[in-house]
Amino acid sequence: MSTAVQSRGLLYWAGRCVGGILSMLWAVASLPFRLVIGIIGVAGRLVGISLGFVLMVIGVALWAGPFFILGIPLFLVGLLLTLRCLS
Predict the structure, then answer these.
(1) Domain boundaries, position 40
(2) Residues 6+ apart with CB under 8 A from 35
(3) Which residues are CB-contacts of 60 (< 8 A; sequence separation ≥ 6)?
(4) Total number of domains in the chain
(5) pLDDT per position as a tens digit, 4-47
(6) What angle separates helix 68-86 from helix 3-64, to the nearest 10 degrees?
(7) pTM for the structure as a whole
(8) 44-83 as b/e, with b when 16 or more CB fall inside 10 Å?
(9) b/e per residue 8-34 (b: at least 16 CB within 10 A)
């Protein structure tokens, strides 16, 4: 094996090591931000599911009473909101 091939292999290995170390440092540095963003996303989905469920319950209650014309769209909005937050 020639020295040119050996030096290319060594450079390739060194590049892989440096890239791996930089990738690991970036993952560790960005972990708190990714965690905060993930928690905010989950909290937003939970609020959306809760609000959608409340709208569905109020919509069904109004649908069963004399205000059915208001209850039907309210139920549908709550249903769509809940389904959107679950997907």
Answers:
(1) 3-86
(2) none
(3) 71, 75
(4) 1
(5) 556 677 888 888 999 999 999 999 999 999 999 999 999 999 99
(6) 160
(7) 0.68
(8) eeeeebeebeebbeebeebbeeeeeeebeebbeebeebbe
(9) eeeeeeeeeeeeeeeeeeeeeeeeeee
